[in-house]
Amino acid sequence: MNELLMQSTGPLIALFLVAAMFSLGLDLTLRQIIGSLGDRALLTKSLLTNLLVVPLLAIVITSLIPMHEGLRIGIVVFAIAAGTEGGPKFVQMIRGNTAFAFGLLVLMLVFTVTLVPLILPLVIPHAVIHTGALVVKLLLVVALPIGLGLLLNHLYPAHAARISPFAHHLSMFLLYGLFVLLIYVNFQEIMALQSSALLAGLLYYVLAFAAGYLAGGPDLHNRQTLGIMSFARNGSIAMLISREVFADDPQVLMMSTIMTVGSVIVVVLIVNTIKRLPQR
């Protein structure tokens, strides 16, 4: 039974991403996305935070806190994989700057696919990554549903408005199902996790969110948006890299999976907390 559930996590993650990206595409236009990236100062700080500061935080944290080498690599791989596909969905839930989050996501995914193969071998010697599988995955679960949503909203805005609530409810249902499933299938690994690695992971969440929040500038919605987009990384890409590049060390895949599960837990807590706070 557990084996079947573990095998179902991959398809469920893909279904959630497709539903989330399609629902976002239904609510946005290309003009909104391009216009949201017009603030060059905010965009520059966002990219520097996500592509430089956050990975460096993970490297420093895992260097200072002793742990198994595979666990250290798992945290670093997770931190380098910028651009979580579900980030804009969480931003939308707190009524943050969704258009900016969506535009930032597109840029970060492009950087992740092109730069991770170059950066990772510098951080972790002998790591060789083939980008073909990453490109196919991004096209299928991110680019295609986003494009369909945007196209439908452009050609038939009335139909898009009617479909949007259903798409949102479906993505939320899949999100909470994924949330429960990831905790269940990884429960033993989470409970048996090396305490130092757990401490490093928690410290990473706090500092990465704080780095994004501080880089967001004076606007509260931008701070909240960048905080979420900075600490929540692309767990599916991180797990793909861990499985393909570090197949000889299962600790790497286990840690990147646990970091993904933990980020889902933390982001749900953050979203629920922000939704209860008075918005200025």
Structure description:
This protein has 280 residues and is mainly α. The protein has a single domain (2-275), classed as Na+/H+ antiporter like fold (Up-down Bundle), CATH 1.20.1530. Helices cover 83% and strands 0% of the residues. The protein has 13 helices and no strands.
Provide keyphrases for this structure.
280 residues; mainly alpha; Na+/H+ antiporter like fold; globular
CATH topology: Na+/H+ antiporter like fold
Distance between the termini: 48 Å
Give the number of domains: 1
The fraction of residues assigned to DSSP E strands is under 5%
| Topology as a string of helices (H) and strands (E) | HHHHHHHHHHHHH
Largest sheet: none
Shape: globular
Per CATH, which architecture?
Answer: Up-down Bundle
The beta-strand count equals 0
Radius of gyration: 18 Å
Short description:
By secondary structure, the chain is an all-alpha fold. It has helices at 2-27, 30-36, 40-64, 69-80, 87-93, 98-123, 132-155, 157-185, 187-191, 195-215, 220-231, 235-245, 250-276.
Which secondary structure elements does this structure contain, and how are they paired or packed?
Elements: H1 2-27, H2 30-36, H3 40-64, H4 69-80, H5 87-93, H6 98-123, H7 132-155, H8 157-185, H9 187-191, H10 195-215, H11 220-231, H12 235-245, H13 250-276
Helix pairs in contact: 1-7, 1-8, 2-6, 3-4, 3-6, 3-10, 3-11, 4-12, 4-13, 5-6, 5-11, 6-11, 7-8, 10-11, 12-13
